[in-house]
Amino acid sequence: MSDLTVFAWTFPVAVPFWALMIFLPGWRGTRRILAPPWVPLLPLVWYFVLAIPHFGELWHAMQRPDLGVLQGFLSTSYGAALVWAHLIAFDLFIARWIFFEARTHRIPWWVLSPLLLLTIFLSPFGLVAFLAVRGARIRSAA
């Protein structure tokens, strides 16, 4: 399978889950669909499609992190597609956690949805923003 195909299909695998969390956060089906812990693993299928045949290069880049080696790995189409799949999977993992934490702490959908949108594009910012909102919510409930 080509690197471009893997890159092109990684995000679409995650989109239905993102759409449910952002647009239908209160729907009971959203909770049911997102409940299984394997949901974030779906984009990792594409990760393994590339990681297995390029395991030697991946291992070399990761065993002793060196900026030059990592830069070289990421400059390849398979390296960039592999990291893209990694990012999509872990962003979905973080978003799923945010979704369930927001429900636990009764954070309203109109606050949650923009935070999830931020998480899609810039997950570290989305996570930090959610943690701030969550912390404020916990303090206000105490």
UniProtKB/TrEMBL annotation:
The chain crosses the membrane at residues 6-26, 38-56, 76-99, 111-133. The keyword Repressor does not apply. It comes from the Bacteria. Keywords: Membrane, Transmembrane, Transmembrane helix. Pfam families: ABA4-like. This is ABA4-like family protein. It comes from Amycolatopsis albidoflavus.
